[in-house]
Hints:
mainly alpha
Amino acid sequence: MRRALVEVVLLGIAGGAIGCWIVLNELSYGAESLPHAMFPGLVIAALTGLPLLVGGSAGLIAAALAIAAATRTPLIGRDSAIAVVVTGLFGLGVLLALSPASPQSVQSLLFGDILGVTGGDLIVAAGLTVLVLGTLRLLHMRLLVVSFDRTSSRSLGVPSGPTDVALLALLAVSVLIAVQALGNLLVVALLIAPAAAARLLARRMLPMMATAAALAIVSGIAGLYVSYHLRTAAGASIALAMVAVYLLAAVAVRVVPGRTT
């Protein structure tokens, strides 16, 4: 439980910070697609005894190559190509997970096992969190220009292409941080719900990121305690708590309009 609390804090910091940029740039579909696309890599890692970080990274690379190849088909739209690839890869992962040779622990890849994180997992998560925050600090001005004025960003000396690639890479790293704790199906709640709530409550970027991280941490801890006392699944409880925070923020903005920072 103590390790889970530390993991929740790390996930909240990284997920809240990158989640604001994901919401602002309308990349929520990508945040949902990446965990599904990397699922076969996670299952293969579990079957072969490799670290999940290695399997997840390999799964992301394979998914990126498959999506790049599919989007080159002129008769299929980009969104349709991505949807076909992601659905196919997720189906392959489920097929592997349901094979007789799969250990019972494979099921935790779908829904997470935050109560099973080890000290080594926390060290990796802390390192990746520092990487995400440091990169966001370096790219802050570029992200601001591209996010708020994409059409004029090139004339301002900030081409959108490299910035988008960097943001997607950070999204991939954030998914790698969170997937072991929250699972393949629930990680999107961490990346989207607190950031969406923070966008309702704040207008400037830094306060929005700080608010999102705080909401993610508080709701994550609340979900852990609900799981402990009600004997419910920890990952699902955390995800529901984060969605509840968004709903409360949406109600608060309607009841008390103009309360933003």
